[in-house]
Amino acid sequence: MQKYQLSFAKVNVLNEHIAEVIVGQDVVISLEMSEEYDDFLTNIFSNNFALLINKINQYDFSFEAKVSMASHDNLAAIAVVTYDNESKTSVGKISAIRERDGWNLKVFDGLNLGWQEGLDWLQGELNSEALNN
User: Fold this and answer.
1) How far is CA 105 from CA 1, 12, 55, 81, 101, in A?
2) Please, what sign has the CA dihedral across residues 33, 37, 38, 43?
3) Helix (H) or strand (E) holding 132
4) Domain range enclosing 59
5) What's the alpha-carbon Rg for the chain, to the nearest Å?
6) Is the dihedral of CA 63, 121, 46, 82 positive or negative?
7) Confidence class of residue 72 from pLDDT cuts 50, 70 and 90?
8) Which of 90, 93, 92 is nearest to 106 (CA)?
9) In whole angstroms, what separates CA 117 from the centre of its chain?
10) Residues 96-117: what's their mean pLDDT?
11) Predicted pLDDT at 103
């Protein structure tokens, strides 16, 4: 596993197609941070990839970041692991804003083995994506 530190988050590259993202506590992700993140992902992944967002910390997004983040053509799936209702609600609101983008997103409960379930789901989504290409 390769570990990277962005200005606002840790990124653990779990394998050649999946990265875990852990945003810092109380961060407000700006458009600039979102661009840093997108540039990082572009440099790490050249083919289809998936993200495991581990919402262990509380954080938020500026409106500009909400409408621009996770816009990669090669982003096949996003699993979000949440640990409380507030985080689940937050994910739902952002997903609603980005509904037109057709994100392949699923939320998992971190208190009930959600991290592993999310990782397994991402692997399945990437495998089905590979079969469809």
Assistant:
1) 23, 19, 14, 11, 11
2) positive
3) helix 114-132
4) 2-131
5) 14
6) positive
7) confident
8) 92
9) 15
10) 89
11) 85
CA-based end-to-end distance of the chain: 27
Per DSSP (E only), the strands in 9-116 are 9-15, 18-23, 28-29, 49-54, 60-61, 75-82, 105-109
Tokens found for residue 89: 């609600």
How would you classify residue 118: left for phi > 0, otherwise alpha for psi between -120 and 50, otherwise beta? Answer: alpha
Report yes or no: 91 and 60 within 8 Å, Cβ to Cβ: no
Indicate the pTM of the whole model. Answer: 0.92
Q: Judge whether 118 and 87 are in contact, CB under 8 Å.
A: no
Instruction: Tell me the one-letter amino acid at 60.
Output: D
Q: What is the pLDDT of residue 113?
A: 86
Q: What is the CATH number of the domain that holds 86?
A: 3.30.750.24
Does residue 40 surpass a pLDDT of 90? Answer: yes
Structural domain count of the chain = 1
Please report, for the chain, how many H helices and E strands are present, in that order: 4, 8
